[in-house]
Automatic annotation (TrEMBL):
<dbReference type="InterPro" id="IPR036322">
    <property type="entry name" value="WD40_repeat_dom_sf"/>
</dbReference>
<dbReference type="Pfam" id="PF00400">
    <property type="entry name" value="WD40"/>
</dbReference>
<keyword id="KW-0808">Transferase</keyword>
<dbReference type="GO" id="GO:0005765">
    <property type="term" value="C:lysosomal membrane"/>
</dbReference>
<keyword id="KW-0458">Lysosome</keyword>
<protein>
    <recommendedName>
        <fullName>GATOR2 complex protein WDR24</fullName>
        <ecNumber>2.3.2.27</ecNumber>
    </recommendedName>
</protein>
<dbReference type="GO" id="GO:0005829">
    <property type="term" value="C:cytosol"/>
</dbReference>
<feature type="repeat" description="WD">
    <location>
        <begin position="203"/>
        <end position="245"/>
    </location>
</feature>
<dbReference type="GO" id="GO:0061700">
    <property type="term" value="C:GATOR2 complex"/>
</dbReference>
<keyword id="KW-0853">WD repeat</keyword>
<comment type="function">
    <text>Catalytic component of the GATOR2 complex, a multiprotein complex that acts as an activator of the amino acid-sensing branch of the mTORC1 signaling pathway. The GATOR2 complex indirectly activates mTORC1 through the inhibition of the GATOR1 subcomplex. GATOR2 probably acts as an E3 ubiquitin-protein ligase toward GATOR1. In the presence of abundant amino acids, the GATOR2 complex mediates ubiquitination of the NPRL2 core component of the GATOR1 complex, leading to GATOR1 inactivation. In the absence of amino acids, GATOR2 is inhibited, activating the GATOR1 complex.</text>
</comment>
<keyword id="KW-0472">Membrane</keyword>
<keyword id="KW-0833">Ubl conjugation pathway</keyword>
<comment type="subunit">
    <text>Component of the GATOR2 subcomplex, composed of MIOS, SEC13, SEH1L, WDR24 and WDR59. The GATOR2 complex interacts with CASTOR1 and CASTOR2; the interaction is negatively regulated by arginine. The GATOR2 complex interacts with SESN1, SESN2 and SESN3; the interaction is negatively regulated by amino acids. SESN1, SESN2 and SESN3 convey leucine availability via direct interaction with SEH1L and WDR24.</text>
</comment>
<feature type="repeat" description="WD">
    <location>
        <begin position="116"/>
        <end position="158"/>
    </location>
</feature>
<comment type="similarity">
    <text>Belongs to the WD repeat WDR24 family.</text>
</comment>
<comment type="pathway">
    <text>Protein modification; protein ubiquitination.</text>
</comment>
Length: 789
């Protein structure tokens, strides 16, 4: 969408006018360049090479330089530059290694002037000398830079960087003979065109390839570089050694960097991938861009300020096949949306909190923060680089000191060192870890381990037949509890459906009705059972009759005829003594429905035996009816996510390792990897290297389990001949002696080996420790004073 604001800039009698606008190209652009009068722009790419006039309202195509019926690789451009002294002179870098110059003053349709075919690979960059009309410099993927004199047909100088491919070359604006070049290996080189044999200076600027560079138009020694490490660095080249003055952190690889005219600390950047926006940075504020242009929908490949003395207009080309003119006034300013709040922990446990001045009210009695707790060092105050931005967004800083011991993480270290994650049965692991958590005062974690043991560790199953047999003998083993049922709540067909077939001795769970409110808890002494309506003095047994009856445990109170039941006072608070027992279900129904009957009497009536069918039926044993562990998988996964969201990744990772495949399939791989890497990072912060390695080794995530397989190469020299050992065995290839002999017991060390870095002698860890307790001399007899700490 085009924005309608316009700007007019006076430049030495001429005026630049325009607005934010764009035009659609025939193909993606790889590079752009502006002529010296800021009235035209050339766009070059793999399938496009055109010149557009920049008018006040739009771009107008003026010339198409791709002429001829057959496409030529010479026209496939990786870079283009317009000479700033001769408005008719252009140069392009072709992908086939050819450097082509173009003369727009030629009367024919074909404007091609000269071809230089000395490079063997793609030419990445071409650059004209700022004051010399006939000097052209190129940098290629073959690692060479060549200087061409346009009055001759071949190069006059070849510069070898003795490195990988050259990504950018730029002549210095202030030093006539100096140019800078950037390389794939992260180096930046400064050359004198009069000395092609060696560079004047070389330094490592970035961690990875350096894609671009640009000399400051005003400050003589300032060089800006951008690389794949997502950084833009400003170097002072006037010092004996290159000095890094500023570093801007971006969010993607930096493909282009251009200083903003008339603004000493501003530069524009665009990314090579991922990020489509163009940013203008103030190098004194390296984390928040001063302006941002968001018009492109694909990667921006080329940027150029329209005039070397105008900071308002920026031109850009993109892979989305658009050419844009950006007005600085229309750019969005991220600093206006920046969050001025921040929170950070200090080295000594202090918490620093920054918020807007308007949100932080002045509190009386607040002590000023003492700052650094080290001994004071007096030095001259440096200027704060953020002072120019104090009016844009300012924050008030508050520092809170923690109570002594309040931020202690000793529980984390103790838990990590004492937890058992493998090598035992699951039940023992859960019990051990629950005990550790309970001793450290983490009761919720201990309860979680106990619940996991109950869910995943099945006890021995007990059959209902043996259970009833033990009851008949007066055994006190735990039984599942069932509730009583009122007669009025039952359907007429309930008796036949719930009767157990004792002749066959089989029980079915689908014919057993249980009250959901019954609590399945057994007491070891069998004195009282919670959650059941049945008195604790009574149990259900088997008889030879057809009905199920309620029998007392005490055989002395068993009556051969119609018994009289008395409910214990501790079970039901009776209002009066029950003297008679109803004889039929009709009487029970009437009495239970009578408004004159109390609740206790109705409950007592429901417990009486009947002739027609059983009121109570025995259910399955507790362990027969247990749910499978897979039933709780969703609950266990929710529990792990709960601990992870609370910041306790230690618990989440420990449960993942202990349960293994039981829960691994229910949690996505990316989440597991995030938990593992967070926990390993915490362990390494506390220097718990052994625990960290154990977690990596036991990891259920493939991406984590290979962490201890990288960068673990140990280069060992023979203790006798001092030559490097091969990785084929324990015997030195040169002296044919076993290099890892223990100096105390004179046996080969095949496990943990400790050696002195001074004399290279060593042996078993325990042997060396014991030896050095009584003597400080080397046990090998070399006379060296060894020390073990």
């Amino acid at each position: 969408m085009e924005k309608m604001s316009r700007v007019t800039t006076a430049l030495g009698g001429s005026a630049l006018t325009g607005r934010t606008m764009h035009c659609h190209l025939d193909a993606p652009a790889n590079a752009i360049s502006v002529c010296r009068d800021a009235a035209q722009v050339v766009v070059a790419g793999r399938s496009i090479f055109k010149i557009y006039a920049i008018e006040e309202e739009q771009f107008v195509e003026k010339l198409n330089l791709r002429v001829g019926r057959k496409p030529s690789l010479n026209l496939s451009c990786a870079d283009v530059v317009w000479h700033q002294m001769d408005e008719n002179l252009l140069a392009t870098a072709a992908t086939n290694g050819v450097v082509v110059t173009w003369n727009l003053g030629r009367p024919s349709r074909n404007k091609q002037d000269q071809l230089f075919t000395e490079h063997k690979r793609t030419v990445n960059k071409v650059c004209f000398h700022p004051t010399e009309a006939h000097v052209l410099l190129s940098g290629s993927q073959d690692g060479f830079m060549k200087c061409f004199d346009l009055r001759r047909k071949d190069s006059v100088s070849t510069f070898s960087g003795q490195s990988e491919s050259v990504r950018d070359v730029q002549f210095s604006i202030r030093d006539y003979f100096t140019f800078a070049s950037t390389f794939e290996n992260g180096n930046v080189q400064l050359w004198d065109i009069r000395r092609p044999d060696r560079c004047e200076r070389m330094f490592t600027a970035h961690n990875g390839p350096v894609f671009c560079c640009d000399w400051h138009p005003e400050d003589r020694g300032w060089l800006a570089t951008g690389g794949r490490d997502k950084m833009v660095k400003v170097w002072d080249m006037t010092t004996p050694r290159a000095k890094e003055m500023h570093c801007v952190q971006t969010i993607a690889s930096v493909a282009r960097v251009k200083w903003r005219p008339e603004c000493r600390h501003h530069l524009a950047t665009c990314s090579m991938m991922v990020d489509h926006n163009i940013y203008v940075w103030d190098v004194r504020r390296p984390f928040v861009p001063a302006a941002m242009f968001e018009e492109h929908r694909d990667v921006t490949t080329g940027i150029a300020w329209r005039h070397p003395h105008d900071p308002c207009f920026l031109l850009s080309g993109s892979k989305d096949s658009t050419l844009c003119q950006h007005l600085f006034r229309d750019a969005s300013q991220p600093v206006e949306r920046a969050n001025p709040e921040g929170l950070c922990y200090g080295l000594f446990g202090d918490v620093a909190f920054a918020a807007k001045d308007s949100l932080v009210a002045a509190e009386s009695g607040r002590k000023p923060y003492a700052g650094d707790r080290r001994h004071p060092i007096f030095f001259k105050r440096k200027l704060d680089p953020a002072e120019p931005f104090s009016g844009l967004a300012s924050s008030a800083l508050s520092v809170f000191e923690t109570e002594p011991g309040g931020g202690s993480m000793s529980w984390f270290v103790d838990t990590a060192e004492r937890y058992a994650l493998a090598g035992r049965p699951l039940a023992e692991l859960c019990d051990h870890n629950a005990k550790v958590a309970r001793e450290l005062g983490r009761n919720q974690v201990a309860q979680t381990w106990t619940m996991l043991r109950i869910i995943y560790c099945s006890p021995g199953l007990v059959s209902s037949a043996s259970l009833n047999h033990s009851v008949g003998k007066g055994s006190s083993c735990g039984l599942p509890l069932i509730n009583s049922f009122n007669l009025k709540d039952m359907t007429p067909g309930l008796g036949s459906e719930t009767r157990l077939d004792r002749s066959k001795g089989d029980t079915r769970s689908d014919t057993v009705l249980l009250d959901s409110s019954a609590t399945l808890i057994t007491n070891e002494d069998n004195e009282e059972t919670e959650g059941s309506d049945v008195p604790a003095d009574y149990l259900l047994g088997d008889v030879e009759g057809e009905e199920d009856e309620l029998y007392p445990l005490d055989p002395e109170h068993v009556h051969p005829e119609e018994p009289e039941y008395v409910l214990p006072q501790e079970a039901f608070p009776l209002r009066h003594e029950i003297l008679d027992t109803p004889s039929g279900p009709e009487h029970l129904q009437d009495k239970a429905d009578s408004p004159h009957v109390s609740g206790s009497e109705a409950d007592a009536a429901s417990l009486a035996p009947v002739d027609s069918f059983s009121l109570l039926s025995i259910s399955h044993a507790l362990y027969d009816s247990r749910l499978p562990p897979d039933f709780f998988s969703v609950l266990v996964c929710d529990m792990l996510r709960f601990y992870a969201e609370q910041g306790d990744v230690q618990m989440a990772v420990s449960v993942l390792i202990v349960l293994g495949e039981r829960v691994r399939k229910d949690i996505d791989e990316q989440t597991q990897e995030h938990w593992y890497t967070s926990y390993i990072d915490l362990l390494q912060r506390f220097c718990l290297w052994n625990v960290s390695n154990e977690v990596v080794k036991l990891s259920t995530s493939r991406a984590v389990s290979c962490l201890n397989q990288a960068s673990t190469t140990l280069h060992v020299n023979c203790s006798h001949c001092k030559r490097p050992m091969s990785s084929r065995g324990w015997v030195c290839d040169r002296c044919h002696r076993c290099a890892s002999m223990c100096a105390v017991c004179h046996h080969v060390v095949k496990g943990l080996f400790v050696w002195c870095q001074g004399c290279s002698h060593g042996g078993h860890l325990q042997h060396i420790m014991k030896w050095l307790e009584g003597s400080s001399h080397c046990p090998a007899g070399c006379g060296h004073l060894c020390e073990y700490s």
